[in-house]
What does this fold into?
Amino acid sequence: MAIETGKTSNDAEEDLEVSSGWFAFNENTSRALLLTGFLVLIIAYFASQDSSFLSADNGLNILVNASVIGIVSLGQVLTIISGGFDLSVSGTVPLGAVTFAILVNDGWGVLSAVAATMALGAVCGLANGLIVAKAHINPLIATLGTMSVTGGLALTVADGIQIPFDDPDKAVLAEQSLFGVNNHVWILIALSVALFCVLRFTVYGRYLYSVGGNREAARLAGIRVDAVTVSVYLFSASLATLAGAVLASQLLTGSGIAGTDSALQSIAAVILGGASLAGGIGGVPGTLIGVLILGTLANGMAILSVPSFYQTITTGLVLLLAVGVSQVRRFRVGR
It folds into this structure.
């Protein structure tokens, strides 16, 4: 029986298989190998300029500093695979930092404070998802607006000042633990493994790639497109507030201006990692390598005493380059 759009349900199933980014997952994973080569070249360059760059301490420093954006990027890659993106993380990260600092200062345990902080993020993400999925507002406009709301709320709650931890022992998220590696690095690793398995082996992962690859075909095939859309923004905001809690633990203070570059950094990492702004393509391996590339560039330039504003310029240029490559790939595959 034909459907109003002129396609049968069988046609929709075929479109779903062809256009779904599920098969592009393997392509994206293989591209991670090329990115690894690029990362090696960057490391080789900075090592040639300063031998201390290859020290174990500096390697750990790169991982520690990149972990916050890494956590944000894991949420961001979900929204980009689905065909959207989340600018509001630049507001939810500082909101998470401020909320976590307030809660631990009020005597909350670290785990309960983290849970409450992520619950607040889930509420913010739910709002984003409903605005995009139900009100049909473009993700750019929707998340730009909520970025202003959450960022302004973070400054309001903090009363425009930093909120230092009363008890430094509550900053366990940033402490070193197993093998001398900081806890939030292990958090990033655990989240990465979990998300990789979800995207690679679950029905939800297949649905997510399908929605990003061809939204209408996914709808005709019976996938609850709106529910998938809402879920990715919920996950993105929850992880952004977790990253805010980690950042507060690193700085021993909650700040309404900490992490305000999270949107630029996370989108750059995800696109650099091989995801497509058209949706349907992306994955955890490439995203993590994108995060490491940005972290290595920032660390290397800091060691070479390159002014911080040049680091911001470099991130912007890397994002433009990654988007350009993404567009070329999209043109070549006809997407």
Notes: Residues 1-9, 17-25 have pLDDT under 50 and may be disordered. The chain is about 75% helix and 0% strand. The longest helix spans residues 225-251.
